[in-house]
């Protein structure tokens, strides 16, 4: 070892001298961007010409098909379920975050309990909810009540809220934790009740985290495939399921691409509307 | 408001609500684990003793063991690739100077924002046009792209707080750029790189939605097999396989957390 070591240093050293000055840090950034560009951005952009199908006998045919009722329903459902899931998740996440910021000293333990589910595959967590809700499952075993929620809209909302809850806790907790304790004491000293302090001081100051959390949960929930696939029935199909179905069941890449393009345009549109109310750049800075 | 204050009714109420939300969050996973030990042929709560019967079935099933092997190979290969590429990119974005740096760096995060269903069809279509076969090549490249943002974020935040004077000192004392990297920069940031690659492993190991488009016959991953089994009916074999998945993911993630907090 001791005899070979100087040689290794000598070789890497001369490579280093050669490389220095020729490869700058900007080149390194370009390498990362190039990889994401070639294996992610380009493939996604190529869905646009694929869906338009100019140069074939029937250009835009896929788009005409996408305006049919069942697909419009799937688009509407994605946005509706996305909004309802976001509302439910934010309420639950706010409760947990408030408790972690002001109600306990065991922050590390509670934070671990919030984060551990993030490390477990979605499919396993949805499977757990499926078991819990199934009429012959553990819930029925223990209580004798047969739950009838499975393959309904509430089941899908429960699943989506469960799975995306940790994503909402992190930004809300960070913004609550950053509130200066002096402000809360000042509010109390000046005679405000605990509820009034919460409504007039704590809540407004936590709004940036809440908005960031809402944005993350909405984007994830609206584009979810597994939630409706495992917990929903035919009347809970969301857009991700239609895109996957077009490709996997009917091998219709053109139509799947058209749905993906329409969904992306609608999502960007929704983000632009969101941007007029909350400054998107400021929100992203909070994530 | 401290943890030691007397239990007021309001505090008890808050505590009960918090416990309920934690139950909501964690009970599904706990149920999967508990019902995997049932001796019956339906995943119910074992009331007449625990049994490892379904783990035995798992070990006897070639196709399930093969899925486990595929998942391990794909997660290992893609996490190594995304550790290398993510680290290089993080160096470039922290140390490089070019216009619109912050805005451009969000491109690196796109794979975690775009719906994985769209990523999946885009990649399978693209790989097809490049005649890159489905199965291992497509899975490894796809998972590398999907896990790259996590490594990038972790290593970037480590580099931002890194003290550059250490490198200057090394250079002033006569070490070349390669020796400085090997003996100074590398050892300091390597925990972040390893932690990032472990998170990439976890992301790859659990990925389903994009993966379902990239598999070929014989290269199903564990999440895909679980999904397919769920569609055909509930058996406790799904639980046993899920528990294996949970254990692998938690062990890797916990070691990553230990490394990044050290």
Q: What characteristics describe this protein?
A:
heterodimer; A: 287 residues; mainly alpha; MetI-like fold; B: mainly alpha; 0% strand; globular
Helix proportion of chain B: over 70%
Average residue-wise pLDDT of chain B? 92
Name of the CATH homologous superfamily of the largest domain in chain A: MetI-like
Briefly, what CATH class of the largest domain in chain A? Mainly Alpha
Number of helices of chain A: 15
- In DSSP terms (H or I, runs of 4 or more residues), the helix count of chain B works out at 11
Give the second-level CATH assignment, the architecture of the largest domain in chain A: Orthogonal Bundle
Assembly type of the chains comes to heterodimer
Please characterize this protein's 3D structure.
The complex is a heterodimer of chains A (287) and B (262). Chain A has 287 residues and is mostly helical. Helix content of chain A is 77%, strand content 0%. Chain A is globular, with a radius of gyration of 25 Å. Chain A starts with a helix and ends with a helix. By secondary structure, chain B is mainly alpha-helical. Chain B has helices at residues 9-35, 53-60, 62-95, 101-105, 116-129, 136-160, 165-172, 177-206, 211-214, 222-232, 236-261. Chain B starts with 8 loop residues before the first helix and ends with a helix. The chains are: A mainly alpha (287), B mainly alpha (262). At the A-B interface, helix 1, helix 2, helix 5, helix 7 and helix 8 of A face helix 1, helix 3, helix 5, helix 6 and helix 8 of B.
């Amino acid at each position: 070892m001791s005899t070979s070591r100087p040689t290794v240093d000598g070789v890497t050293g001369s490579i280093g001298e050669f490389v220095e000055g020729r490869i700058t840090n900007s080149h390194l950034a370009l390498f990362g961007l190039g990889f994401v560009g070639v294996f992610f951005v380009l493939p996604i952009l190529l869905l646009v010409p694929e869906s338009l199908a100019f140069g074939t006998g029937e250009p835009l045919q896929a788009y005409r098909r996408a305006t049919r009722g069942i697909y419009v329903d799937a688009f509407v459902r994605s946005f509706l379920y996305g909004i309802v899931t976001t509302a439910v998740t934010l309420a639950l996440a706010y409760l947990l975050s408030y408790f972690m910021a002001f109600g306990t000293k065991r922050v590390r333990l509670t934070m671990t309990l919030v984060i551990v589910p993030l490390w477990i595959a979605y499919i396993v967590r949805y499977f757990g909810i499926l078991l819990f809700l199934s009429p012959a499952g553990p819930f029925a075993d223990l209580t004798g009540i047969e739950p009838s929620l499975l393959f309904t809209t509430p089941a899908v909302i429960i699943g989506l809220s469960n799975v995306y809850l940790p994503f909402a806790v992190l930004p809300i907790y960070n913004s609550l934790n950053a509130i200066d304790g002096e402000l809360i004491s000042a509010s109390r000293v000046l005679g405000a009740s605990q509820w009034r302090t919460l409504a007039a001081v704590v809540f407004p100051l936590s709004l940036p985290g809440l908005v960031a959390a809402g944005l993350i949960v909405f984007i994830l929930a609206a584009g979810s495939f597994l939630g409706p696939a495992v917990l929903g029935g035919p009347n809970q199909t969301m857009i991700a399921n239609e895109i996957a179905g077009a490709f996997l069941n009917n091998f219709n890449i053109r139509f799947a691409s058209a749905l993906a393009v329409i969904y992306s345009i609608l999502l960007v549109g929704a983000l632009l509307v969101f941007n007029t109310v909350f400054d998107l750049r400021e929100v992203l800075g909070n994530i | 408001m401290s943890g030691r204050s007397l239990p007021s009714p309001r505090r008890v109420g808050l505590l009960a609500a918090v416990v309920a939300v934690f139950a909501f969050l964690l009970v599904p996973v706990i149920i999967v684990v508990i019902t995997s030990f049932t001796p019956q042929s339906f995943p119910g709560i074992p009331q007449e003793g625990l049994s490892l019967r379904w783990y035995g079935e798992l070990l006897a099933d070639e196709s399930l063991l093969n899925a486990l092997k595929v998942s391990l190979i794909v997660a290992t290969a893609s996490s190594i690739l995304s550790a290398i590429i993510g680290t290089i990119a993080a160096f470039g974005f922290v140390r490089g100077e070019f216009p619109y740096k912050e805005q451009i760096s969000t491109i690196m995060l796109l794979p975690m924002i775009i719906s994985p269903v769209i990523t999946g069809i885009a990649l399978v279509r693209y790989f097809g046009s490049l005649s890159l076969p489905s199965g291992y090549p497509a899975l490894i490249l796809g998972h590398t792209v999907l896990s790259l943002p996590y490594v990038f974020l972790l290593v970037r935040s480590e580099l931002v707080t890194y003290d550059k004077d250490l490198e200057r000192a090394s250079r002033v004392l006569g070490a070349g750029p390669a020796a400085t990297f090997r003996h100074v920069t590398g050892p300091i940031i390597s925990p972040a790189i390893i932690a990032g690659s472990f998170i990439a492993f976890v992301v790859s190991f659990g990925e389903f939605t994009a993966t379902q488009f990239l598999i070929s016959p014989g290269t199903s991953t564990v999440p895909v097999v679980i999904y397919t089994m769920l569609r055909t009916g509930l058996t406790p074999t799904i639980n046993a396989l899920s528990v294996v998945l949970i254990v692998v993911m938690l062990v890797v993630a916990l070691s990553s957390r230990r490394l990044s907090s050290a």
